[in-house]
Amino acid sequence: MWLQIALAAMIVSFTAFYLYMKHRLSYWKRRGIPEDKGHFPFGSKHAWDFVQGKMSFTQMTNFAYETHPGEKVVGTYDMFGSPGLVIRDPDIAKLILVKDFDNFMERKPFHYNMYDSNTKNNRYFPYMLTELRGQKWKKVRSSLTPVFTSGKLKNMIPLIHKVADNCETYLDKNIGVEFEAKELLKGYALDIIISTGFGYENDTLNNPENIFKKHADVIKGKTFSLKLIIAILMFMACPRLLRWLDLSIFDKNSEDFFAALIVKTIKERKESGQRRNDLIDVCVDILEKERKENEKSVEDEEEAKRRNDEMEKIIIANSLIMFLAGFDTVSNASSLMMYFLAKHQDCQEKLYQEIQEAIESTGSTNFDYATIMNMPYMEKFFQETFRMYPFTHLERCSKEDYKIPDTDIVIPEGIFVRYAATAVVKDEKYYPNPEVFDPENYSAEKKVDRHPFVTGGFGHGPRNCIAQRFATMEVKIVIARLLSKYKIVPCSKTVDELIPDPRSRSGQPKGDIWVTVEKR
Ligand code: HEM
Predict the structure, then answer these.
(1) What is the atom index within ligand 1 of the atom nearest the CA of 470?
(2) Is 132's C-beta closer than 6 angstroms to any atom of ligand 1?
(3) pLDDT at 333 over 70
């Protein structure tokens, strides 16, 4: 009898859940919006393919884009039918990312309680610039922007050249040896962040066993574990559940290592009064300013302390995000440039000539800010690299119902919107031969006729990449320095085609990027 009741309860519950899901999976159809059909219980194809390891995170919007030519937007379903909207039209993207930014200021909310986070994991994650919301985001973004002014970047250049010297020392000992470019450039990007961000000198390439490298490798992790895939899908489907289960996004030990390092460096700077014009200096200034403001304006001591503590957490979190955001992205971009240079020797020769001219006119390979940022062919090659191997769609969340002007489409409140930036750059409509690598796609004549939102690896609008110029400078310096001395050539392990590896957390291609160098 009890068994029959239990069985009946199970059947009723499952049927109710199934019917609820069927209703949920018709969310877009009911609103008359074209959709990428959702299937019980994993949603649209991208979510199911991601779970199975068939599609990379960076390609998640591509299927909806490619299967709905002619549409402006496509409804999708993440895990358990959570609705999302893929934006196909660059004009709509512009409205969302720039003109009506106030309604699309945030990325997907992460429901950690900012003020009373008793969680074991992800203590800093909700305070990172990438996750912050509303006025708090505005305040932190404007406080951190001065780290990347051209004046500050010019001061950082000697530190970057010092790290590039280490790359040369390493390659001088490895002429003709096949190497994985991302691994080499990970060392470069890591040492730059450690130097310009945290004030320590480090030489990962010639001393790979160092503590920074060890924790950097762990905190990012090379591949998606099943636990992380589940955490990401849960985040997409139901962020609250991820918060309740407290699944960690970054390795806790390594997160603690870097947090302790930041606290220690801030303390040392405060005590010694020493300045290095770097991220930590800005952090010290922000903390000091906040403390003084709180002293003046907040009478309740408890409240003043809470605010000071929160600001300290924000500072640690954002020093961490500078590290996390700057490490894989820069090494990805520069290693991809190496791949395309190896594969396109004619382009490499053109770039080499441009670099030689810069050396002749400045008398040095220690290029200054203006020289490195004003190499026209370098810029075209850089842009074309992002087009050929785009990294990410752009995400925003709608604050209120939003009717797209001149259409009947309404983006409901709370909907997760993704601009298909990875797909537009491969659309024949905008690039006539999208699969052919051609830096001339970025010549002035071609750019003038193209919509500005079908390009750009750094995002768009007020929430674009805060470090765009810093990152561009890092990538161009290492490429110019290496090309001035070596010829980059393919080797036996160089893959013919770059296909994103679904298991790679950093969007690395399958088979990695193997090349070798010859001395010029
Ligand atoms: C080639 C290297 C890089 C690429 C391709 C890149 C790309 C991006 C993209 C696409 C976004 C999202 C933009 C949007 O949603 O519109 C972003 C945001 C961000 N990036 Fe970068 N990035 C790079 C390097 C860096 C570096 C070196 C740092 C830090 C030192 C950094 C820090 C950030 C931060 C903090 C955000 C979040 C900004 C906000 O929400 O206000 N990035 N980046």
Answers:
(1) 27
(2) no
(3) yes
